[in-house]
Amino acid sequence: MNIFYNEKTKSFHMKNDIVSYQFSIEQGKYLTHNYWGKAVSDNQSKSDYRYADRSFSVIPNEIKGREFSLTTLPQEFPGDNNGDYRESALSIRYKDGSFNTALEYDSFEIIEGKPGIDGLPATYISRDNEAKTLKITLVDNSKKLEVHLFYTIFENYGVITRSTEIINNNVEAIEIEKLLSASVDFDHSNFDLVQLPGAWGREREIERDKLSRGVHKLDSKRGTTSHTYQPFMALTDPDTTEHSGEVYGMHFVYSGEFVANVEVDEYRKTRMQMGISPEHFSWKLNKGDIFQAPEVVMVYSDQGLNKMSQDLHQLYQNNLIRGEHQNKERPVLINNWEGTYFDFTEDKIENMAEEAASLGIELFVLDDGWFGKRDDDLSSLGDWFEYKAKLPNGLKALAEKIKSKGLKFGLWFEPEMISEDSDLYRNHPEWVLKAKDSAPSQGRDQFVIDYSQKEARDHVLNQMKQILDDVPIDYIKWDYNRNMSELGSQNPAIRDGEVAHRFILGLYEMLENLTSTYPHILWESCSGGGGRYDPGMLHYMPQTWTSDNTDAVARLEIQTGTSMTMPISSMGSHVSAVPNHQVNRITSLKMRGDVAMAGNLGYELDVTQMNDDDKETVRNQIDFYKENRSLIQFGTFYRIISPFDSKDSTSWMIVNQAKDEALMYFYKILDRANTLSARVKFKGLQPEFLYQVNKSESCYYGDELMNKGIYIDPVVPVEGSTEPHPIGDFRSEIIKISKVTND
Ligand code: GLA
Asked: What is the Cβ-side half-sphere exposure of residue 613, based on CA atoms within 13 angstroms?
């Protein structure tokens, strides 16, 4: 990994063994993009911008002739209102009403390692030689603006991260209306656009479309990231598959309103951009002040989408997630939500915990309903003290009882919310997030607390700390159950255009405080399931509740889509009761377990209601999971058959680092009559290793398993028969293969 600057050609080249990124200075001042792609060795490279007189291109004032134009120049950070008619990377409104910004290259600095970003989550390094950073300074001399572009290249991944900061050196305050974090120009548009849109209960559906002319925008106007669009997009070659072909991905390390833009212009060139959404954003920057835009992870793969995912998984596992639990095996949990909803007593919880402990479960999570006077979702958010009528002996006593059974204890919070029927609302209606003179909309009968107001978030922080200081808590599920609307603050000192970003900064400040004060706590993020499952949250909370949809079949799509960007160790996946509460489907306990065991296994049902056979099945599932937990949570993940491509089956694989152990997950969805079995081909094995299948006599070499494959026919028990049958819907199998050793 290195960063080169060639003084003669005025060119920069960042490269490691996987990826190269090049740009140069054209006409003495224009930062011109040259290349992003597979690592190349040329360090002399200069811009190969095609000089030509093109009709209706405009020429910068100081340039002679008609051959150089910002209308066609591939730019690293395009300014606004200066003849580049494509989407800009920044947009500033000046005191006199003008809004043209012309950025020129000024200087560069190469930094060993990677500087942190104040107040924002970002990837980090643990060793200096793990990454190098290039800082480029651009200036607009007439407006006295300074923009810094940061590029970090990592040693081991096909990843370059980018972020931007802007300094106002003018005497007058300026209004930042847009400041993106990354912008890249490609010299063609022969791409597919891959994205992960979704909805509640259907998170991260993989969509892939041929790129066409115009601006294609994914964004959030909901205050935070949401179920609807992910802050992720990838451009691929049209023939790229999971395991071959080129991919250029961008993923935003930010939890607020974002935009991901792809524009194909009149020359069929493509501009790809990511940053804070300009839609509700405008930021006043006084003289001398700095504004910092969050980080974008840019990932390149020449081995298809799956390799892109693997690089992201590793980057996030090693360089984004932090704290005591980062590399620790995650506990098997039970959550009482689908088992009881709001309707529980101390006795009920204790009985569930007792049974859970006997099954091998390690952590009990008490979900919604333990605080204020919360018997339904109409009240009490904001009143973070125990509900005495429900828990007469108190939360602490309950936690201690649960812990005495050998379980850890976890608790649910929804700290950014306020119910109209709450003491907090009665005492502080001015803390509700709402635009001045607006009547705020309700969502799930609740309002959002204005986290841009420090007193408001500190109040919640202190309430939480009182509980955390008193009750022995090992785990917290941090929920967020509506989207924002009527963005604005009742505090006249806070400008409405700054509220969305200040909210997120406030949230991050609070999370930093809590996670560093209580480092032993395992934090799981949640937003109606996976509505805020983004790299920003992952920096503070190493786990996320993937979806409220716990149906095993629906989860095949949800977990496949989630695996596109997120590591397995972060993915909460629970076994719930049937008929399933979200889709009413009945699947076997085996199938539900086999799906949940491809993530962080948990149970979310009333275990006291299970019969002995089911309890035995659960015990076996947990034993198997614990035996393979490190492989599952921290191994290399392969998507073998995607439910988005095949309606019949899904298959995943996880291989450990030494490649001497792997799990093959195979799911048959709806059966058809009279079909022939299909072979399943493995991935990621060592070709010359001999592997034993399921501790049986069957052994195959890695190359056989990967190229020839094996038949997998999952069976189901059929009522009235002693023989299990390889027919029927919703069947699954997890096959373990282990390297045969000579001793
Ligand atoms: C959200 C979560 C659920 C549960 C409920 C409680 O919907 O996603 O898991 O915690 O809130 O109200």
From this structure: 4
Identify whether the C-beta of residue 295 lies closer than 8 Å to the C-beta of residue 161.
Answer: yes
- For residue 604, the ligand 1 atom closest to its alpha carbon is 9
Question: What does DSSP say about strands 571-576 and 543-545: parallel, antiparallel, or unpaired?
Answer: parallel
Q: Is the dihedral of CA 36, 37, 43, 49 positive or negative?
A: negative
Distance CA 559, CA 202 (A): 10
Residue 716 has pLDDT above 80, yes or no: no
Q: Which residues contact 62 (CB under 8 A, 6 or more apart)?
A: none
Q: Best substitution site from 342, 376, 412, 600 to test ligand 1's pocket, by max atoms within 8 Å of Cβ?
A: 412
Tell me how many helices (H) and strands (E) the chain has: 12, 39
- Mean pLDDT across 233-249: 98
**What is the Cα–Cα distance from 474 to 468, expressed in whole angstroms?**
9
- 412 Cβ closer than 6 Å to some ligand 1 atom: yes
Q: Is 38 a residue whose pLDDT tops 90? A: yes
Q: What is the pLDDT of residue 718?
A: 67
Q: Report which of 514, 416, 506, 431 is spatially closest to residue 465, judged by C-alpha positions.
A: 514
Task: Give which of 551, 434, 532 is closest to 479, Cα–Cα.
Answer: 532
- Is the Cβ atom of 369 under 6 angstroms away from ligand 1? no
Structure token digits, residue 564 = 């596109």
| pLDDT tens column, 314-330 | 999 999 999 999 999 99
One-letter identity of residue 419: S
Nearest residue to 467 (alpha-carbon basis) of 389, 401, 408, 387: 387
Question: Is there a contact between 236 and 209 (Cβ–Cβ < 8 Å)?
Answer: no
Angle at 66 between CA 62 and CA 70, to 5 degrees: 65
481-498 pLDDT tens trace: 999 999 999 999 999 999
The minimum-distance atom of ligand 1 relative to the CA of 377 is 12
* CB distance 152 to ligand 1 below 6 Å: no
Is the model's pTM score more than 0.90? yes
Mean per-residue pLDDT for 132-140? Answer: 98
Of 735, 712, 544, 739, nearest to 657 (Cα)? Answer: 739
Catalytic residues: 479, 548
- Distance (Å) from CA 572 to ligand 1 centroid: 13
318, two tokens: 């090693």
